[in-house]
Amino acid sequence: MPSTAPPPSRGWFAQLLLRLHFLAGLFVGPLILVAALSGAVYAVAPTIERVAYQHELTAPSTASARPLADQVEAAQQWVDRHHPGDTVVEVRPAPAAGETTRVMFSEAGLLESQTRAVFVDPGDTEVRGDLPVYGTSGSLPFRTWISTFHRSLFLGDVGRLYSETAASWLGIVSLAGIGLWAFRIRRARRKRDLVLPDNRVTGYRRTFSWHAATGAWVLLGAVFLSATGITWSHFAGDNVTALRSALSWQAPAVDTALGGAMPAMGGEHAGHHGGGSTTSGAAATVTPEQFDQVLAVARTADVHAAEVRIRPPATTDTAWTVEEIKLSWPVAMNAVAVDPGTMTAVSQVTWSDYPLMAKAAKLGINTHMGALFGLPNQLVLLLAALGIAAMVVFGYLMWWQRRAPGARVGRAPAAGALARAPWWGTTAVVVVAVGLALLLPVVGVTLLGFLLVDALVTTFGRRTR
């Protein structure tokens, strides 16, 4: 019996991209929209915090900075009165004149990787207040709130599936869209219309022009945000971490072991997911004077940045650590472990020790957080996020405008691209799809769901007609 399959067509790939772009945008669009809008706010959150928490962050005294011991004692007295039972776990000296020192305490009931920071004027040791802070970035309550909403919608691990789905599909939808944009280059009469909206047309064509032009401008930002956002995700993030570990692309960490303790492991997300040493010694005794002594040792061991954090050990068999935490360009990430018994540096890591891919990951994450280039970085992220949100809105508007007279929804692009593809094309698509599903499990599950819904809708539509 002769085959009824259609012959291979040269236009199958563009048709496949269009169908994928439409289906993914239709189903994942709301998640991308929420992630983009919350991400837009998160992008400028550091600047908002400088205004919202000006009292805590500003040190009015013009006197010379007092020793860290005096500042830690002032913070401890404040905590004893307002939050008894808290234990000092970190000190971040004021990085510049007019700024406060953060003395940070562990406290029951706070989030993982969250501490309570007491803000001390280094000139007169006046306590300017206390606030919960989160992670290496030292996010204050506003940024922590918007970050949690952006990452999980306050739904815990279940909510993280939303952001992982949005981040995973954002890059795929963007690449499919730019592929369609490239196909238009050959037949576009005015190349200008590929990057600027054509306001001479109306209706669907005008919306399409705005959608395509906006996509061309935000493509790199969308792919970048997708790639760096995936590193924070649950399933795909674990795969990326395992891959980097297998290829020795992880960030190095100082060895804090004294007398046989296991060293701590570090990484770009250490401040986001917690971390620490496996220890077995007795509880360490920490005095305020040690903070000055340890910092002095670190200053002789290539720790020169103003932005540092000093962390005392929890047990006697681990060392103190002093780490540079300058996230802006040029970054400063040197770290040293100090033996409190001898007051000598016992382990050291510098930025030059980072593998190339670990450096790239660190710089990418700092950029995603709006920290690497300061306010310009934040404004670019804001524009990129708003552009992504606009593309989602334009996409749904186009779908509505494509509806037939009397129809409730718009028409979808034609199906059946793979049936028209040559054998090597179908094989390549399957291989790429399987690879993406293995690296990005959420993509695999949702793609299967898309195909199932698409098959049911297509079948039902044919029977109705």
Structural description of this entry:
This protein has 3 domains: 13-33 and 159-235 and 376-402 and 414-464, no CATH class; 54-139, Nuclear Transport Factor 2, Chain: A (Roll), CATH 3.10.450; 251-354, no CATH class. 53% of the residues lie in helices and 10% in strands. Residues 1-6 and 260-279 have low confidence and may be disordered. With 465 residues, the chain is an alpha+beta fold. A hairpin with an 8-residue loop joins strand 5 (308-311) and strand 6. It starts with 11 loop residues before the first helix and ends with a helix. The protein contains 15 helices and 8 strands. The chain has a 4-stranded antiparallel beta sheet with strand order 1-2-3-4. A 4-stranded antiparallel beta sheet has the order 5-6-7-8, with helices on one face.
Summarize the structure.
The chain is of the alpha+beta class and 465 residues long.
